[in-house]
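lol forgot to send this yesterday, sorry. struct tokens for the thing we talked abt
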């Protein structure tokens, strides 16, 4: 069934249900950023495969809203369909809410599956509908009715994350969570986000490709925890460990009925950005709801000392793999037919050699030439191209090890480049190094510091259309709040930097139809000094891979720029050379030489 036929079938169902507009977001029942195949309803109805976007279907029009990371990709994938691209954050494009307010007729009906829409988002829709004297219908998954070969929910086994990796017991985590509940006079905490659940219970799963998460909900009370999950995923050993912390097992979907049976005097703590709209609407109206960000979000973002130690080890492993790969790529491009996919496979091989390797930590981005200008490009047999001399190859990939997750981007010069290409590469290096070297007072957020990264671009009338960095989960989501680098405000990334947070630093530049450059390190937040002016903090780079000197023009760098890069390369050589053989060490010495 082609996109046009699918939209036609959806409109037939909308007409039967008397719906004027139907919304299809990118989400599962848990507001997960990257979802399993079963939940890719928006991709099914529009053809757009990116990880972020919302489809809005009316009886006459079909729209897709997505952000700047995906404008090029969405334009290409929507070609030939009737779906129109709406560029989020761009002038002359309305927000979804603005469009709904204009398009929904008086007394109109707005439809969506309430399980895949967040409570807060659903409440925004309620206001729009109320203004039109209309109503919301949220109990129908219309996509399911037309998706004949829809994939099934995953049934992968759950595994335990040992304390030597987690660094904190389940009991300790529950005590901290219950303390927050007490502070908010709540005796129930409803938790639906998969990474928060897995962190709380020190478990990981296999329900989403690349992300070791398990489909589940939990209800935390002061004396017990209700875990809603497919019980067949749990071994007897894990069941026993969970029972020690008074975790009671329930069937996955039973939470919708159980939440309706809460007592009138019970106070429920929940996150309106995370709990889905359907579950929220099942809570009895007599209950008091305390709307707060899940405490687990900040708890897991501030890594404990064990996690920091482990994630340093994971970064060493990944840096070794990358340096071996960089050497292989540069030495073999002329003689071997290396493609985007085969290059990605080779990096995967180097990672596997490092031990305790679980798999990729997200869908790999392996892109050459004009493909690298597509920020979240994903190579396929249909798009795979040979890596040839005269352009850039960009690899944005990560590894999941028991020691933690990595997210690293490097762009490599393949053969001779133009002066303009080298100039752009050098600007990205300057940006990355400048942000890494920032010293700042405690209380500073990523919005304060994002300018440090963008200044080399903005000074020249240039920009990159994505955030400069995000938090990293420990064998969880690779994108983790509540802190990140952005020049525009986002509530879920606005928390000040705290010691032991690990954030990415990934500026870039993208020339559509020609090339793209991105350089990404992970940086650890540390306390620097405390004096009469306050407590100062700094970043420590924990990724140790050269910035390709073949693509740098030293003449456009200040002496400070050169010093920052030279100091970083000195650190790279010191950290990684002990793990290399003599030939590799000599090669690394060349690519970390002083400029």
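and heres what i got for the seq, position by position
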């Amino acid at each position: 069934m082609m996109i046009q036929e699918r939209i036609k079938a959806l409109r037939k169902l909308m007409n039967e249900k008397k719906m004027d507009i139907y919304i299809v977001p990118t989400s599962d029942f848990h507001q997960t950023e990257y979802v399993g195949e079963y939940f890719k309803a928006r991709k099914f109805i529009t053809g757009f495969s990116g990880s972020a976007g919302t489809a809005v279907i009316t009886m006459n029009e079909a729209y897709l809203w997505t952000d700047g990371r995906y404008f090029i990709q969405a334009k290409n994938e929507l070609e030939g369909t009737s779906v129109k691209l709406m560029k989020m954050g761009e002038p002359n494009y309305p927000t979804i809410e603005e469009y709904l307010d204009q398009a929904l007729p008086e007394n109109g009906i707005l439809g969506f599956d309430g399980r895949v829409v967040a409570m807060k988002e659903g409440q925004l829709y309620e206001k729009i509908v109320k203004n039109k004297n209309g109503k919301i219908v949220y109990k129908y998954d219309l996509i399911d009715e037309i998706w004949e070969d829809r994939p099934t929910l995953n049934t992968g086994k759950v595994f335990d994350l040992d304390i030597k990796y987690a660094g904190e017991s389940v009991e300790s985590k529950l005590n901290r969570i219950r303390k927050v509940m007490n502070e908010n006079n709540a005796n129930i905490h409803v938790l639906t986000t998969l990474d928060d659940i897995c962190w709380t219970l020190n478990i990981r799963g296999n329900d989403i490709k690349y992300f070791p998460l398990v489909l589940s909900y939990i209800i935390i009370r002061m004396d017990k925890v209700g875990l809603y999950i497919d019980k067949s995923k749990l071994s007897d050993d894990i069941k026993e460990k969970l029972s020690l912390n008074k975790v009671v097992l329930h069937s996955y979907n039973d939470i919708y009925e159980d939440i309706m049976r809460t007592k009138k005097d019970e106070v429920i703590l929940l996150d309106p950005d995370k709990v889905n709209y359907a579950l929220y609407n099942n809570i009895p109206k007599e209950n008091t709801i305390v709307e707060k960000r899940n405490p687990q979000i900040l708890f897991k973002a501030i890594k404990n000392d064990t996690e920091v130690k482990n994630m340093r080890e994971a970064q060493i492993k990944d840096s070794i793999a990358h340096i071996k790969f960089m050497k292989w790529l540069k030495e073999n491009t002329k003689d071997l037919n290396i493609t985007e996919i085969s290059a990605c496979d080779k990096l995967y091989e180097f990672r596997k050699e490092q031990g305790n390797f679980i798999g990729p930590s997200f869908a790999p981005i392996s892109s050459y030439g004009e493909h690298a200008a597509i920020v979240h490009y994903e190579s396929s047999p249909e798009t795979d191209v040979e890596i040839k001399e005269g352009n850039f190859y960009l690899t944005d990939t990560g590894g999941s090890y028991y020691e933690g997750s990595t997210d690293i981007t490097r762009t490599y010069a393949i053969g001779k480049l133009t002066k303009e290409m080298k100039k752009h590469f050098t600007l990205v290096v300057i940006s990355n190094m400048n942000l890494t070297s920032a010293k700042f007072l405690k209380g500073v957020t990523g919005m304060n510091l994002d300018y440090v990264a963008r200044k080399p671009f903005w000074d020249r009338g240039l920009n990159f259309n994505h955030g400069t960095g995000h938090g990293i989960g420990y064998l969880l989501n690779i994108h983790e709040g509540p802190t990140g680098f952005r020049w525009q405000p986002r509530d879920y990334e606005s928390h000040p930097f705290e010691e032991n947070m690990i954030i990415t630093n990934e500026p870039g530049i993208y020339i559509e139809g020609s090339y793209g450059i991105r350089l990404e390190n992970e940086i650890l937040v540390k306390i620097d000094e405390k004096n009469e002016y306050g407590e100062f903090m700094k970043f420590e780079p924990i990724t140790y891979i050269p910035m390709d000197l073949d693509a740098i023009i030293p003449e456009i760098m200040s002496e400070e720029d050169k010093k920052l890069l030279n100091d970083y390369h000195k650190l790279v050589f010191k950290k990684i050379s002990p793990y290399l053989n003599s030939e590799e060490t000599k090669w690394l010495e060349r690519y970390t030489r002083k400029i």
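The mean pLDDT is 96. anyway ping me if u want another try
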